[in-house]
Design goal:
Blueprint (H helix, E strand, L loop, with lengths): L1 E5 L4 H12 L3 E6 L7 E4 L5 H7 L19 E4 L11 H22 L3 E7 L30 H20 L2 E7 L2 E2 L3 H11 L12 E2 H12 L6 E6 L10 H8 L19 H7 L16
Parallel strand pairs: 1-2, 1-4, 2-3, 4-5, 5-6, 6-9, 7-8
Helix pairs in contact: 1-6, 3-4
Protein name: Nucleoside-diphosphate-sugar epimerase
InterPro entries: Epimerase_deHydtase, NAD(P)-bd_dom_sf
Pfam families: Epimerase
Length: about 300
C-alpha cells in the first residue's frame, strides 16, 4: 500500500514506519523533521492547506516518471505533542486537535479510504491524573469511561470524536489506536530493572506497555483489515510490565477495584482482546526476552 504517515520521525513513528516498509508498504513521512531511510515531506499539520497539498504529493522523484501522481491508499496519523508539560496546555490541545481534524478532513475529501490515528492510554484518565486514580474496573477495555483531567488526554478524546464523526459522514474506515506506553528495544535493559524493584513506577501506565515493533505490527493489521467502519482499539503487549503476578499487583495497588473476568498470572490489565479478535493483533516481543531474572 501507498501510505502517508504523519509523525514518522517520532519515538513510536520511526519504528512503525520501519516495520511497514519491511512489509513492503511505500511510506511518505509527513513531519517537521526528516526520517532517515524514508521519503519525508516537511509539513505543518495545523495548516489545512499544507495537509491537503501533502496528501496529493509525490513521494519521491520516481513519481515524475509516472503519468499521474499515485494516490495514497491510507493515512496513518501519529504526529502530536506527545504528552503534557512540553508546551503550554492550550497549545498541546490546539496542535493535537487541529492537526487531527485537518488530516481527517483532507483524507475524507480526497477520497482516501482509510485513516488510522494514534489515540492514547491517557484517555482513561489514570496516566496524568493528580494523585492515585484507579480504573473503574479491571481489565481496562475500550468500554471504560474516558473522562481525563489533562490537556493531552482531552485532545485525544476530542480526536476520537472527530474520527467517529468523519467516519459517519464518509463511510470510510477510521481506526483509533489507544496506544499504551511505547517501549523501544533498548529500553528493556535500561529501564525495566527499576520496574522489577519498584512496581509502583508502572501504576500510571496501568502496569502495561507496547513494544514499538509490535505497534508497527498493529498498524499493519489495521491496514490489512477493511470494513470495520469506526473502531478504537487498546494496543499493548499481552503481559505485565512488572515481575510480580497479576494477583499480586491487584493486592498491592487495586484493592476494591472490581475485576470483570478471570485473568492470567502475567496478563496485562490493559485489555487487548478486541484488537486480537477484530484485526488479528498478535504481539511477539516482551521484556522477558531480555531480562532473565525478576528482581
Amino acid at each position: 500500500m501507498r501510505i502517508a504517515f504523519t509523525g514518522g520521525s517520532g519515538k513510536a513513528g520511526r519504528h512503525a514506519v520501519a516495520y511497514l516498509q519491511a512489509q513492503g508498504h511505500e511510506v511518505l513521512n509527513l513531519d517537521l523533521a526528516p526520517l532517515e531511510g524514508c521519503d519525508s515531506l516537511q509539513v505543518d499539520l495545523t495548516d489545512s492547506g499544507s495537509v491537503f497539498n501533502a496528501l496529493t504529493s509525490m513521494k519521491n522523484f520516481d513519481d515524475l516518471e509516472k503519468p499521474a501522481t499515485p494516490r495514497f491508499d491510507a493515512v496513518v496519523h501519529f504526529a502530536a505533542i506527545p504528552r503534557i508539560m512540553i508546551k503550554p496546555d492550550q497549545e498541546t490541545f490546539r496542535i493535537n486537535t487541529m492537526s487531527t481534524y485537518n488530516v481527517m478532513e483532507a483524507a475524507v475529501k480526497l477520497g482516501i479510504p482509510k485513516v488510522i490515528f494514534a489515540s492514547s492510554e491517557t484517555t482513561y484518565a489514570v496516566c496524568f491524573a493528580h494523585g492515585d486514580l484507579k480504573p473503574d474496573y479491571l481489565p481496562v477495555d475500550e468500554a471504560h469511561p474516558t473522562v481525563p483531567h489533562d490537556s493531552y488526554a482531552m485532545s485525544k478524546v476530542a480526536n476520537e470524536a472527530c474520527g467517529r464523526s468523519f467516519q459517519a459522514r464518509s463511510g470510510i474506515d477510521i481506526y483509533g489506536l489507544r496506544i499504551n506506553n511505547v517501549i523501544e528495544p533498548h529500553e528493556y535493559a535500561a529501564n525495566f530493572p527499576a520496574f522489577m524493584k519498584d512496581p509502583s513506577l508502572r501504576r500510571r501506565n496501568i502496569f502495561a506497555y507496547i513494544d514499538a515493533r509490535d505497534l508497527g505490527h498493529m498498524v499493519d493489521c489495521c491496514l490489512k483489515t477493511d470494513g470495520l467502519g469506526y473502531e478504537v482499539f487498546n494496543v499493548a503487549n499481552p503481559d505485565l510490565s512488572v515481575g510480580i503476578s497479576n494477583a499480586e499487583v491487584r493486592r498491592r495497588y487495586y484493592e476494591g477495584v472490581p475485576v470483570t473476568r478471570e485473568m492470567g498470572e502475567r496478563e496485562t490489565f490493559y485489555d487487548i482482546t478486541k484488537a486480537q479478535k477484530l484485526v488479528g493483533f498478535a504481539p511477539k516481543h516482551s521484556w522477558r526476552d531480555v531480562l532473565t531474572t525478576e528482581v
